[in-house]
């Protein structure tokens, strides 16, 4: 399926924030535009002067056109930009906490545009959590949590997905060619994970996951496979009691509500074709339990989706790659997937409300 095939011609644009200015985010967007790979009706948010300078340094043939939110002039190798000014000039590979507010301002503009109907979806390039914290935001833990608070919702779910319907090179795991992994906990130190696995959290995250698989992916009755927290899913309590005391009662309660949910299953065997056959998503207990497998399966051809928001948000599956910034060697594949998936999800939402 070509990126953007499902989007109506008169739909608002998909807005792409260019992320940490010292990282690869700005050049990934420029590379897609220069290659003619940006779908029509896609607009960037960032500093136009910085983008022009980066394009010139990399020898990228792309025309930047500054415009206002709601506008999105098109054309071959044209990149429309909704401007946000840097606080200080950016050097590829060199972090500057003075630009932390700039990164958050690009996100705020994208969220505002989505909420006002001026954008159909938002796609985020990577940011650097450490530089945001050092720039005066000590409570910052990542895009996902910031978007939760910006949108005024109580809970969101981080889910990453490879999508063979959008990229034929994605490996076949779930029968349909997709691997979707959602997380009960996200950017949390491992030492704190077990305490965060509660009956309430497991049931709440599971309900959100099911609801957005229905709403955004059009899956009428999703089947979810759940990873245990402990090795061998606790081995009947011999390797930890979280499965017996918390997870099994939570999953039983969900089944009583009609949720099609499997587990808790040992994570070391769940991610195999036999166990994933017919499964629409895997729910992992913590970040690396699920995402290490997904990124091995489809790194660079996967996207991050924030579920539970009143808007569509996708992102790349990688970080700022400061060592690659400004060299023109970064792979824009994940950004391409994220944009295509954002368009597909936005189209699904539009069709559901038509």
TrEMBL record:
Keyword NADP tagged: yes
E.C. number: 1.1.1.262
Cofactor note: Binds 1 divalent metal cation per subunit. Can use ions such as Zn(2+), Mg(2+) or Co(2+).
Cross-referenced InterPro entries: PdxA, PdxA_fam
The organism's place on the tree of life at top rank: Bacteria
A GO CC annotation given for this chain: cytoplasm
Biological processes, Gene Ontology terms: pyridoxal phosphate biosynthetic process; pyridoxine biosynthetic process
Primary localization class, coarse: cytoplasm
Sequence intervals crossing the membrane: none
Protein role: Catalyzes the NAD(P)-dependent oxidation of 4-(phosphooxy)-L-threonine (HTP) into 2-amino-3-oxo-4-(phosphooxy)butyric acid which spontaneously decarboxylates to form 3-amino-2-oxopropyl phosphate (AHAP).
Name listed for the protein in its UniProt record: 4-hydroxythreonine-4-phosphate dehydrogenase
Species, as recorded: Halovibrio variabilis
Native organism taxonomy: Bacteria, Pseudomonadati, Pseudomonadota, Gammaproteobacteria, Oceanospirillales
Annotated gene: pdxA
